[in-house]
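Possible regression after last week's pipeline update?

I re-ran a chain I had predicted before the update to compare outputs. Posting the input and the new output here so someone can diff against the archived version. Not blocking, just want to make sure nothing changed silently.
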Amino acid sequence: MPHYLGPERPGGQGLDPEQFESGQRAIHALLADEAVRDQVDLVLTWREGEGGKPGSYEAWAARGMVCFRRVLEPDGSLSYEIVETCGENPLANQDARALQTLEQECEAAVASGFSAADDARRFIAPEAQSYPFGYERVAQLFDSPNAPDLAVSPRDWCQSDAVGNHGALHVRQARAPLWIRGPGVRSGEHDLAMREVDIAPTCLAALGFPKIDGVDASGRSASERGVAPDVYLARQDGRVVEEILEDAPNPPERLYIFLLDGLHMTELDQRLATEPEALPALRRLRAGAAVISSGNVVNFPSITWPSHTALATGTWCGHHDVVNPSYYLREKRESISPQGQELETEDYASSDVESLYEAFHRVRGEAALTAAVHAPFGRSAKHAPWEGRSACPDKDRLKALTAELAGDDCRRWHEEANKKLILYSRLDARGTAQVIDLFTREEAPPDFVYHELLITDGAGHVYGPHGAGLRDALDEADRRIGRVLDTLASVDALDDTLFVVTADHGMAPQDVALGANPTWHVVDAGLEAFVAEPMIWLKDLAIRCERAPDQRTGRVFVEENDALPTGERPALEGAEVVVEAVRHDRCLELARGKTNHAGVFGFATPSDVAAREVCITIDAEGFNARHVRLDGTRIVPDLAAALYGA
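New output (post-update):
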């Protein structure tokens, strides 16, 4: 029998049997209710198995569903087995080459019934998208106990009233540009896609770091797998992409990641292809780089905090635990929001994963200088302003450099009085000033810099991924990059640096007239849930029934479904219980009342009525209603029949 791998660390994520009823209701509401059915592409979940059967992952769409399992193969690799489909398998197309170019995006928009000429309405339907590494990217999410019960992937153009947005599973929002340049890297265009988690181990291999006895994508260390050390990080979900590496006389001295937040790959490629004088600094980096033609396929959800942490740890969010900008901690009954908090968020990531900064200190010692320049995740970086650590003590020099670099700002932000973009532009100027200071002072230069440039993401949201404002933002970012390259050249640190140019996600234009927020529809549909787009944590009851041996009485036990840190489920006092049965062709209400302090409600039953014919409704404020039979059978809607007539 295959060795199936469900969630690595079960903690209530996905749908357990107590949640099948509310889960079916929620999925049906998202895919069938008129208010949002044209806005939702996918609803994703893990469903626990019953009766000794293994559980499975599910992707539901209006066009069909697929149920699949993750399999640990004898050689230690992971594969995915399709268990069931109904209608069309919505994840069948996992072509990483899809929509690589602006021309292909235009063709797909026309095929979807939209305009190719208007970049603000160049929308692409699910049928014209692909879902690279789709099974893996869905399954990994549910490895974390912080993961939701349901995750929603909206249609391309149905996410808020921002002009551009991201977060979905499909390729357009999940692909970022990716170039890697430096000693030991084979230059030229490479016809492949790299997963975001491949970047860190590939760079560490190029740097000549030692392999260690760490955990691979299967969740087991090398010693547990009975092999020699074979990974570069304490947890490593990605692989070393050997196809782009070659022998070099000397490995790179340092690693420098330029992260152009939210930059859509086809916009960057189109600018480079059609405007020979544009983006001179990026052209300098692209020359001699390994250009990954299908780009960097990022974490799901394709959103800033989960994705940045994935890049900086070589692990998917299901393993580093920052599963969303905001998420719900079941055992504590509270929510947290790293992205909302913004500062001092590095400790939200699991201590079981290793940051690139930590890897540099492990290999090169604590004296190594590492810098997280406005990067959302910088755990252990010596210079990490968003974590309150600075390796730039001369504040007057930083102020002077920042003022000088303000001349690189785009005037559009000031002319349009866009406070957010003025702020992002100033932050990028400060970040570039920090880099210049770190490389030009008397101390040894940094071993590793993760340099986040925010302006491209801010402009993408405001103007769209192909708008004139985004092009201005890209020009501004290019000027900042040019300043950095000139600085490194001036201290003879350019040619021995391994550079990565990428982004944390793609971007798609939005239909702003919709003001779409489909994930929240579950609340409008009457379900009790904590919602943080694009995720849903259902608030459910655990129900147990029993009947006395003489068949004259029964009772129901009602508990909160989410366990406390102790593993106990709190009993729920005051839940309303209605007991009904059919006897002699008459529908009878047998009892009505509330649970006591122990979460128990007892009632009389006709001894000549089978337990299966006694139906119990349980309703409690703040929780989803439940319907069960006295024999313990759960009354659950047939979702496939409701959606597909199956």
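Follow-up from reviewer: compared with the archived run. The two ends are 29 Å apart (CA to CA). Marking as no regression found.
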